[in-house]
Design brief:
By secondary structure, this protein is an alpha/beta fold. The protein has helices at residues 12-22, 41-52, 64-68, 100-115, 137-151, 166-175, 179-185, 208-220; strands spanning 3-7, 27-34, 57-61, 119-121, 156-158, 197-198, 201-202. It has a single domain, classed as Rossmann fold (3-Layer(aba) Sandwich).
Length: 221
């Protein structure tokens, strides 16, 4: 029986990946991370979407990023401008959380070992993305090799969106049968704003994540 674990934030990308996995694997589980992010509403949306799609959702709480406080994406830095440059790495956005994906994927790998899951599915993308170096294919391939080497495992990472634009991701979600779910329930707004529903979904409409999604929707249509 084929099996997969989806690293699931309830955003547009990971929700599309969840549908992609559901349509290809016999058994799918999801793992969601509570790292004290400003947009913690995504955790509730992850629970909701997992229930709608009838998949288990395992939530892991991580405190270390809040303790380090090295990103405008964290709740401890409510007053920092999410659209600015990172204070220590000016070539990266303020929303960059150092080593976040490395920790997420490491924990996901450990969980996959425990559950006996063959593949880990992530929504990383290096075409239309927010400038995060840990969303690039060479990084994930290197980490996959290291994690398998260090645990005598053979778990394979899959990233179906890696070369897709946001418009193409909308198209894929339509093909996988979840476009309406993406619009109604997924959450990508860095400010955690679900007070306004746009034609492309909920969000403030001004943060980098919302702008990327909004522009992708326009191109898709």
């Amino acid at each position: 029986m084929s099996s997969a674990l989806v690293v699931f934030s309830a955003g547009q990308d990971s929700t599309t990946c969840l549908a992609w996995a559901k349509n290809r694997y016999d058994h799918v589980e999801t793992i969601t991370f509570d790292y004290h992010q400003k947009h913690s509403i995504e955790i509730e949306q992850a629970k909701k979407i997992a229930t709608i799609l009838n998949v288990p959702n395992y939530i892991v709480t991580i405190d270390i990023f809040a303790q380090l406080g090295d990103s405008a994406l964290l709740d401890v830095n409510k007053d920092q401008d999410i659209s600015a440059s990172h204070h220590a790495k000016p070539n990266l956005p303020a929303s960059f959380v150092p080593n976040r994906n490395a920790m997420f994927f490491t924990i996901a790998h450990a969980y996959a070992q425990k559950q006996g899951l063959e593949h880990i599915i992530t929504g990383i993308n290096q075409t239309d993305y927010s400038g995060y170096p840990d969303c690039r294919e060479p990084f994930v391939k290197s980490l996959e090799q290291s994690l398998n080497m260090g645990s005598e495992s053979n778990i394979e990472f899959k990233y179906p969106l890696i070369h897709l634009t946001k418009a193409e991701t909308f198209k894929l979600s339509e093909e996988e049968g979840v476009l309406e779910l993406i619009i109604d329930e997924s959450h990508t707004c860095y400010n955690g704003d679900r007070s306004v529903k746009h034609e492309w979904g909920y969000g403030c409409g001004e943060c980098p994540s919302c702008i990327l999604r909004k522009n992708g929707w326009k191109e898709f249509n």
